[in-house]
Design brief:
247 residues; alpha+beta; outer membrane lipoprotein receptor (LolB), chain A
Amino acid sequence: MRALRLQFALVFALLTGSALAQKAPDLNQIVTHMEAARIRAKQTEPFLLTREYRMFHDDDVNPTSEVKAEISVVPPTEREYKIVSSKGSDRGEKVIRKILDHEDEAEKSTPPPTAIVHQNYDFGFEGEANFQGARCFVLSLKPKRKDPALVEGRAWIDANTFLIRKIEGQMSKSPSWWVKDVQLVVLFGEIGGVWTQLSSNAVAEVRILGKYSVTGKATNLQTGVTAASNGAPKKISALAPAARAAR
């Protein structure tokens, strides 16, 4: 019996020592790999992305507005959008246009103010978590400035690919006097072979009008295609990554 207890104690000591010997992931390395993965993910063919948006007031089940948009992207920085359909309150379309205008304008900067990079954030390592079946590093996000494009919260980074899978938090600065306490959840993943924003949910308190939420969902993505001036999809030749990078 004594020998058996000794064996168990030895096995436990070995397992414990092995666990203690494993170092916590290095935050700087995670950030470096994450930023490199972001650049690689942008090296894709041009594509046409379809998103569907819905706006809700308070806790209403039915949306007050529904908007469908097509977004043409020629990596790394060229993009434009077209509203394909809109129904319900015109307030919804106005909000969606502002969101898409902001995305278009942000991509003209290097790095974009929306990018999760060290130029925009101070990071902290909060631990590991499983998200949608993937092992992730969870990083805290602390904006380096007050900017509506930045989020104070957390990001889930895929431990294998170092691509961002989820961002959750609060806008570091309100986009206007009318809007306050904007809470965001944004999910990312692969669609049509491109790593992109899959869905978003923003909830805000609007002065006088109350609570509003806006959801967005990517419903289709076609590579090698953008929108022509008449709104019809058109095929275009892909640029080599080196050529795009030189632009």
